[in-house]
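Team,

Forwarding the record for the chain on the shared tracking sheet. I've put the sequence and predicted structure together so nobody has to dig through attachments.
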Amino acid sequence: MSRIALVASGDLRESANTVCWPAQAAMEEKLGRVIRRIGHELWRAHPVKPAGHGFISSQREGMDVFAEIDPDMPIIVAEAVWQYSHHVLPGLTSHRGPILTLANWSGQWPGLVGTLNLNGCLTKAGVTYSTLWSEDFEDDFFLSGLRQWLADGMIRHDTSHVAAFDPGTCADLELVNRIAGEIRRKKIILGIFDEGCMGMYNAIIPDELLMPMGVFKERLSQSALYHATRQVRDDEGRAVYQWLRAKGMTFHLGSDPATELTEVQIIDQCRMYIAAVRMADEFGCEAIGIQYQQGLKDLLPASDLVEGMLNNDDRPDVCRADGTPIRAGRAIVHFNEVDECAGLDGILTNRVHRALGQPVENTLHDIRWGDIDRSGSRDDFVWVFEISGAAPPAHHLNGWAGSESYRQPPMYFPAGGGSLKGYARPGEIVWSRIYVEDARLKMDLGRGAAIELPREEAERRSQATSPEWPIMHTVLQGVSRDRMMAHHKANHIQVAYAHSAADADRAMRAKAALAQALGIEVSLCGVK
């Protein structure tokens, strides 16, 4: 009988670790039974803590745990929760034995998102790993993959849906080359409000990969954003709030700021929005990314409402000191969780879609989960794309009037703040992801559709995840669930709408050609 080490990376916030621990414990119990049944022993390499959870909850703790693990031992990183990859990445970079990242198939916290992020980090770091996912750890796909890993130290998934992009299939090469030339000549600034959110090593693009294409970083501090927010007058913030209400947005207000959304929190978010627009203008940033988690969460309400406003062409005006509006009627690209891969993607999308007359609003989402349609209204496998921030109201059914704001969960956001919840409208989409592999920038693109499900089914899915957050029900073209999981190198995926299927195909190929013209290695996924 061989011994297999198990580690579980968790959050940096103890409030999240304790709340989420029961889901992790249940997953580990199931996994242990399966491992024993096929003749192996699962050894938990770090104990359950007196605090009431068994997660590695800091980078230093992770290093200390790995120092006591035989570096040649097979190891499973099992995740039923969102986790901070840098807690375990240092140990995995020097581990010599076979590595398996493993997720439960659940939208609850979720391990699916945490595992995809860890996979993206390992890919960027050049660490060899295998990955698996399962709802109950009893299905044939999981069991055959596990046996293959135990026998060979590696799992070989089907990724035949991925093919190199041929620029000859783009009908807009002249336009693309003009945009690429302009970017290189005039250059672009990404405003980075504190790099490296939530241990997402995969979300940091090395400067030397950006500079040749004409993209540079302005490294800003969230403390500067906090100060700038505090300089915005209360009446200015209230005017933005009234603009949102006049547009028909619904705010679910309460009186207890510890657990409920209050007007004071919303006005502070509106003040942050004004400050962020002015700082983007001051530093000449085409896009900005707010880390928004550690640090800022203890000082201000969450930035999610801010981010959604920024990513919408139809947004409240913000003026300079001389009274002139800043980029009136134009989105200021915001990349949630300061994911620089999403920021670069967002800029390319904005440039291409505006030039082609397509909707420019775009956002990242977590690949949160997926399920069959339990209402029986359709036969497709339907993904749940969901993110707490950055989703623009233009993506929602009925726009601003179809958008709502709920208090963000206290275990993540002690100072509260409202979300920008909505159900994505049906329509053709282009999805994409930029990532780092082999010290090169790469991009995957594909096609799909956001769909409208019966209300009860849509609500079931929302309640199975984070019901406060915006949600997109998505069917991907030519990419099965397992092929997507096998190849995707991030927890995040970028999405943008087009007016029709033909427009989406054209926009996808134009963005692919632009990325390639800038030196990014491009693949199309599931596209003939």
